[in-house]
Structures are given as structure tokens and as C-alpha cells.
């Protein structure tokens, strides 16, 4: 596994993405690309743009919950923790909690190594005294935190409902790995998107402006660069919709004509209308979210939500 951390002495590697995994998905009978490949440097920026869209409610709704209940949440989570931010991206969500949580140490983990390292460098300027480090790794796999990460009172911070990218069973396995890394004095502060009206979800994942479409199609640019593929991006169409039977939003890319795509490690024919599955985003009912955390080995202590009950922030103890 690729692990790289920004310290004074060690340089970050450009990416924690594995081209072999990309290749395997493209060769599967029903082609898929893991959503982690959405986050190259441009993809991370496009995701930031998604968060600004009127249709994309999760970021705003979660921020409003932290805004309204921040003091309460910080009291539950405790001050002086080792704050480990999973999928830190631009680090903005964690930084907003610094005044309340006053972490002893901040560790920003993201698969998009370059993006998170740049974000952390900027954050250092604003908090010169704080112990921080960036870490480029794929935490969806088994992972080891670098030796510099304190092991007392670890608080994993996993906002934005990224847990929705895992199937419920994968989510439980992932949570158990976190539980194993946080000791008995640790915890988890997590954002989970809740089940809601299909029309709201459809709009959130297929916005009017086409930013989500660009975000999804950008995965092919990333594949072209990472695996030397020759996807013609113009002939792939975005789909993003809620699948109520599966309780999840799905993103796909649909071939608009027959074509052969080649890359290092393989080639494949796609017929017109054939799709590549690029993301699932599971939505939970509050009770099921708590159940998930408990199956993952945590004790779900408290849940905060917004007046429309669209999103939940949960603090769980080890
Ligand atoms: C970052 C995984 C939480 O599922 O809502 C946004 C990614 N995909 N629009 C989500 C995403 C399409 C996002 N997560």
C-alpha cells in the first residue's frame, strides 16, 4: 500500500490510486470504477464545486448541524483529541471545528495526496502552533497510520456521508477497522446522509448545471492518465439517480456509441448504451445508521439532525 506523509523531511507521492484495481473493474462483466478514482486533483476541485450547488444539500445541511449543535457535539467528543480526518479534502470541515474541539493533533488523510498536502500547508499558516500532518493513503483498504500519529484519544472524523460509498456490509468491516485503530478511549464523529424523497436525491446527483456530470466523466480523464487508457470522454453520458430498491444513489457512465477502449493491462469493447458503474451512495434511516455503527463495534452515543431530517451527525464511542 502507498502511504506518504508530509513532514518536514518526507515528500508526498502524487497519488495513492492503484491502476490494477481500475483495470480489474473495467474488465468485469458489468464494468465498474471505484468512486475513489473520482478524486484526482481536478476531481477534488469539482467535488468542491458540487458542494456549492443549490441541489447538493448534504454539505450545507451537515454544516448547519455543526453550526447549530457544535458546542454540544464538541462536549460529547471531548477536547484535546487526536483528530484524524478521513477524506479531509480541503480540510475546511475539520478546521471549522478547531475552535470547539481544540485538537491536540490534527491528521488529514486523503487519497488525493497532492490536494490534501496543499490544503494542509495553507492551514498551517492559519494555525502555526498546532501539531498537524497530511497523509496520502487509501483508507478504504486496510491501512496503517504513520508512526507520528498519537494513539491517545483518537477521534476519527468522517463527515460528508462518505460512508455511503460502501455497501452496508463493507461499511461494517470498515468501521471495525477504525474501531481497532482507536483504542478504548477513542471515538468516531461521522456524518451520514438520510433516506429522503427521490426527487430531492435525483436532483442532488444530476444537477442542472452539469457539475456532477463533469465530476463523474472526469473519472475517465483520470483513467486515461493513470492507466494510459484512451477513453473518448465526449461520448460518455452521466447518470445519477436514487435507486429506492437498493436504498442508494447510483452514478453510471453510459457509452453513447459502440467503441473499443484500450489501456495498459487490457482492452474492452463497449456497445452503445452499456454503462460503467462509478459510485453508490447509500442513504440510511436514523435507526439503521445507529445499527450500522453498533455492528461496527462502536456505541452510538448521540445523534444530531436538521429540522427536515435530511442528514445526521453521530458521535459514537469505542
Ligand atoms: C463524497 C461520497 C459523500 O456520495 O454524495 C457527490 C460524492 N457523488 N455527488 C456523495 C458525490 C456525486 C459524495 N460523497
TrEMBL record:
Pfam families named in the record: Methyltransf_33
One GO term (biological process): methylation
Keyword Calcium carried by entry: no
GO molecular function: L-histidine N(alpha)-methyltransferase activity
Record's keyword terms, sorted: Methyltransferase, Transferase
InterPro entries: EgtD, EgtD_Methyltrsf_superfamily, MeTrfase_dom, MeTrfase_EgtD-like, SAM-dependent_MTases_sf
Source domain of life: Bacteria
Annotated ranges, domain Histidine-specific methyltransferase SAM-dependent: 21-317
Record EC number: 2.1.1.44
Family matches, as Gene3D superfamilies: Vaccinia Virus protein VP39
Protein name: L-histidine N(Alpha)-methyltransferase
Amino acid at each position: 500500500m502507498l502511504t506518504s506523509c508530509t513532514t518536514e523531511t518526507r515528500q508526498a507521492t502524487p497519488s495513492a490510486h492503484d491502476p490494477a484495481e481500475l483495470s480489474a473493474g473495467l474488465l468485469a462483466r458489468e464494468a465498474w470504477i471505484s468512486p475513489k478514482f473520482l478524486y484526482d486533483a481536478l476531481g477534488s476541485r469539482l467535488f468542491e464545486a458540487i458542494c456549492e450547488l443549490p441541489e447538493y444539500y448534504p454539505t450545507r445541511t451537515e454544516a448547519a448541524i455543526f453550526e447549530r449543535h457544535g458546542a454540544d457535539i464538541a462536549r460529547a467528543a471531548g477536547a484535546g483529541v487526536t483528530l484524524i480526518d478521513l477524506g479531509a479534502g480541503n480540510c475546511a470541515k475539520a478546521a471549522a471545528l478547531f475552535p470547539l474541539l481544540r485538537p491536540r493533533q490534527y491528521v488529514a488523510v486523503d487519497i488525493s495526496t497532492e490536494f490534501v498536502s496543499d490544503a494542509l500547508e495553507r492551514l498551517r499558516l492559519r494555525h502555526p502552533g498546532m501539531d498537524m500532518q497530511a497523509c496520502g493513503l487509501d483508507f478504504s483498504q486496510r491501512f496503517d497510520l504513520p508512526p507520528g500519529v498519537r494513539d491517545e484519544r483518537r477521534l476519527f472524523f468522517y463527515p460528508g456521508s462518505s460512508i455511503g460509498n460502501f455497501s452496508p456490509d463493507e461499511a461494517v468491516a470498515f468501521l471495525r477497522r477504525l474501531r481497532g485503530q482507536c483504542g478504548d478511549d477513542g471515538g468516531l464523529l461521522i456524518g451520514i446522509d438520510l433516506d429522503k424523497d427521490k426527487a430531492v436525491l435525483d436532483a442532488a446527483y444530476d444537477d442542472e448545471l452539469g457539475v456532477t456530470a463533469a465530476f463523474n466523466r472526469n473519472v475517465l480523464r483520470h483513467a486515461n492518465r493513470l492507466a494510459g487508457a484512451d477513453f473518448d470522454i465526449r461520448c460518455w453520458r452521466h447518470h445519477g439517480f436514487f435507486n429506492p430498491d437498493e436504498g442508494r444513489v447510483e452514478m453510471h457512465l453510459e457509452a453513447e456509441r459502440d467503441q473499443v477502449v484500450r489501456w495498459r493491462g487490457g482492452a474492452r469493447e463497449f456497445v452503445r448504451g452499456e454503462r460503467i458503474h462509478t459510485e453508490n451512495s447509500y442513504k440510511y434511516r436514523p435507526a439503521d445508521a445507529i445499527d450500522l455503527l453498533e455492528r461496527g463495534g462502536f456505541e452510538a452515543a448521540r445523534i444530531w439532525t436538521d429540522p427536515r431530517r435530511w442528514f445526521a451527525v453521530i458521535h459514537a464511542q469505542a
